[in-house]
Design brief:
By secondary structure, the protein is mainly beta. Among the domains are: about 90 residues, MurE/MurF, N-terminal domain (Udp-n-acetylmuramoylalanyl-d-glutamate--2,6- Diaminopimelate Ligase, Chain: A, domain 1); about 140 residues, Hexapeptide repeat proteins (UDP N-Acetylglucosamine Acyltransferase, domain 1), CATH 2.160.10.10. Helix content is about 10%, strand content about 30%. It is built from three helices and 39 strands. The strands form six sheets. An eleven-stranded parallel β-sheet has the order 8-11-14-17-20-25-28-31-34-37-39, with no helix packed on it. A ten-stranded parallel β-sheet has the order 9-12-15-18-21-26-29-32-35-38, with no helix packed on it. Strand 22 and strand 23 form a beta hairpin. The longest helix is centred in the last third of the chain and has 13 residues. About 35% of the residues are buried.
């Protein structure tokens, strides 16, 4: 049976204020444009305020200053987006998994699997690795040697922990991610490359989430470290010996080169590149497509990307850029 909650129940549970019919039942969530009478919508971005007039939502989570634009019931929140996210989690339907080991799984004789863990089909667990209580290892995952999967972790499917990877409690890793592969360590010797052994591991703190096809290399000597509640989107590359501070979030396709330290509560936009052996302070925001080549030692917003614009306007700007610093506007090629 689908869960239902009154607005009064939701307000009490999440510390919100009810406006209108507190006994109104909510059985799901939706966008302003598609929500129906028993669904909850939300307004966080004023850009969507115009949709309030035609919304059929049973109630809306919004800020108090937006209340005059809505004639129905509401839940008033200081941060409607985070309030909506917490409420939406009540309606998320996930398939439960039974504890135990699937017959097709291959488990090393000295691996330790807690009886309350769940090991799905075609999983491989290597020597001396430990899977703790409540962990769910989805189909096709490979866990190498000397790994620890903490309590209540979820490896959704086809996740690879190569070796010496330690996951704290409640870590969630999406399909295709590879954690603990060799870092890109090379030394030139007599005209050819020799490989630098990668002897460290990867340490991932509690409540982190790692997106699909993201890769995190293990350290050369010390560990690569993600502190607690780090959130990585899909297709991100984290180089060896990187340290990422707690509560930092990165959008898709970010690349961080080795031995860089990123502070707490940073936000890194999609496609950004961060050079190696630099330091980024707490609460720095790096806008999408930026390239960070030097340390940032205080909280700030940085960008090196050039936003898209009309092609003719861009060509005029590029022509002006090429003339900067030249004699009488001549091109450096003249």
């Amino acid at each position: 049976m689908a869960a239902t909650y009154t607005l009064d129940e939701l307000a009490t549970r999440f510390g919100l204020v009810v406006h209108g019919q507190g006994k109104h039942l909510i059985s799901g969530v939706a966008t302003l444009a598609k929500a129906q009478c028993q669904q909850l919508g939300f307004l966080a971005n004023p850009h969507y305020r115009r949709e309030l007039a035609n919304s059929q939502a049973g109630a809306i989570v919004l800020r108090r200053e937006d209340l005059p634009h809505w004639s129905g019931s509401a839940l008033i929140a200081r941060d409607p987006y985070s309030a909506f996210a917490r409420i939406a989690a009540l309606f998320e339907v996930t398939e439960g998994s039974q504890s135990g080991i699937h017959p097709s799984a291959v488990i090393a004789p000295d691996a330790v699997i807690d009886p309350a863990a769940s090991i799905d089909a075609h999983v491989s667990v290597g020597a001396r690795s430990r899977i703790q209580a409540g962990a769910r290892i989805g189909p096709g995952c490979v866990i190498g040697e000397d790994c620890v999967v903490g309590p209540e972790c979820t490896l959704v499917a086809r996740v690879t922990l190569v070796c010496r990877v330690a996951l704290g409690p409640r870590v969630r890793i999406h399909p295709g991610a590879v954690i603990g592969a060799d870092g890109f360590g090379l030394a030139m010797h007599e005209g050819h490359w020799i490989k630098v052994p990668q002897l460290g591991g990867v340490s991932i703190g509690a409540d982190c989430e790692i997106g699909a096809n993201t890769t995190i290399d293990r350290g050369a000597l010390d560990d690569t470290v993600l502190e607690e509640d780090v959130r990585l989107d899909n297709q991100i590359q984290i180089g060896h010996n990187v340290v990422i501070g707690a509560h930092t979030a990165m959008a898709g396709c970010v690349a961080v080169a080795g031995s860089t330290r990123i502070g707490r509560y940073c936000q890194i936009g999609g496609g950004a590149g961060i050079s190696g052996h630099i330091e980024i302070a707490d609460k720095v925001t790096v806008l999408a497509k930026s390239f960070v080549t030097h340390s940032i030692l205080s909280a700030t917003v940085v960008s090196s990307a050039i936003p898209a614009r009309d092609a003719k306007a861009w060509r005029r700007s590029l022509a002006q850029l090429n003339r900067l610093g030249t004699d009488r506007g001549r091109s450096p090629r003249d």
